[in-house]
User: What shape does this take?
Amino acid sequence: MKAVANKGFTLIELLVVVAIISILAAIAIPQFGSYRQQGFDAQAKSDLRNIATAEEAYFTTNFVYEACAGTGTAATCNDPKIGGILRGGAVSKDTTIAMVLDGSDHNHFTGTSKSSPGTGVTCSWDNEKGGFQGCK
Assistant: This one.
């Protein structure tokens, strides 16, 4: 009779593989969460830049800036009834935005944006100081 060769993995080999995968997952999952938060912050920064650009475009036609605020699609920046500087709703779902007018003749604006699932930083814009001021 021929001897039958055993094929397969032993229990110890399988346990070692499971342990290695568990260690790698324990390292990667928290890092993934951090990357997600940074992505939400980048989206808030992008929304702020888009609205500031829309403010400038609005100014070229109306000679005044438009104040707006809110979160996501409910932000008044998206509302066509008040001029809708963003016509089409470019503010992301979790981004809170505020564009504030300075000066009595509405010829200067500042803006802030923050993403609720992000790291908690608030990005700011000041058109009189050259635009984007960073995120803190």
User: Anything to note?
Assistant: The longest strand covers residues 95-102.
